[in-house]
Amino acid sequence: MVHFPVFCTRFVELQFPQKSKVLRTSAFVVPFLFDSFPLFFRLLSCCWGSCSPSEALASHSYHLLFAFLTCFLFASHLPERLAPGRFDYIGHSHQLFHICAVVGTHFQMEAVLTDMASRKDWLTSHSVLPSFLGTMGVLALGILLNLGIIGVFSACLPRMPRQSTSASSGAHLHQE
Q1: Would you kindly state where each structural domain of the chain is located, as residue ranges?
Q2: Rounded mean pLDDT of 119-137?
Q3: Given a cut of 50, is residue 134 above it in pLDDT?
Q4: Distance CA 61, CA 142 (A)
Q5: pLDDT band at 46 (very low <50, low <70, confident <90, very high)
Q6: d(CA 76, CA 82)
Q7: Cα 129–Cα 131–Cα 132 angle in degrees, nearest 5
Q8: Which of the two residues, 24 and 150, has the higher pLDDT score?
Q9: 101 contacts 66 by C-beta, under 8 angstroms
């Protein structure tokens, strides 16, 4: 629910074009922070010594470093702001933004896979096997909710009058 209002910033940008950069950045930062709070808690608790060190902590740290670098490059437009015209084709902040996002995603996946491998015994002993309702039921619920969202927003679209086929066929007859 947090993602939806922030994701709809494109509509607000039309009303407040001077705030478009802040709105676009917040559309990515707010969901990232919301999803990363457990990771922040884990990293901070491990820094304070209340958790056992893990091989995945380095990958999680690199992931966060590249995520913050991605946000910084998106918001600051460096390096082309420092030397206009020199980074038009190679080294533009948008290119660097995407490179950092891909590298950050790589470290995120490495950390998740390492965590899953190192905690496999604990996960299998403390988790419940998925049921048919827990998998297909959730899938069906997701599809129904998406169809509901499409229906609600489609109902809000302005209706455009359709052209009559008899009027277009009549125009064709007059041309002959």
Answers
A1: 1-47
A2: 89
A3: yes
A4: 32
A5: confident
A6: 10
A7: 150
A8: 150
A9: yes
Identify how many contiguous H helices and E strands the chain contains and give both numbers: 9, 0
Tell me the two tokens of residue 130: 């998925």
Contact present, 60 and 113 (Cβ < 8 Å): no
Q: What is the mean pLDDT of the chain?
A: 83
In sequence order, the 6+-apart residues with CB closer than 8 A to the CB of 134 are: none
- With tokens 């069906």, the residue in question is 140
Least confident segment among 41-55, 76-90, 108-122: 41-55
Other beta carbons within 10 Å of 147: 10
Residue appearing with tokens 């995945």: 56
Q: Which residues contact 72 (CB under 8 A, 6 or more apart)?
A: 78
Q: Is 73 exposed, middle or buried (0-12, 13-18, 19+ CB in 10 A)?
A: buried
Distance between CA atoms of residues 119 and 116, nearest Å? 5
Judge if the upstream peptide bond of residue 79 is cis by omega within 30 degrees of 0. Answer: yes
What's the helix, strand, coil split of the chain in %, to 5?
Answer: 75, 0, 25
57 close to 43: Cβ distance less than 8 angstroms:
yes
Q: Tokens standing for 65?
A: 């470093």
pLDDT for residue 6 is more than 60: no
Provide the residue type at 104 as one letter. Answer: G
pLDDT higher at 171 or 131 = 131
Higher pLDDT, 156 or 2: 156
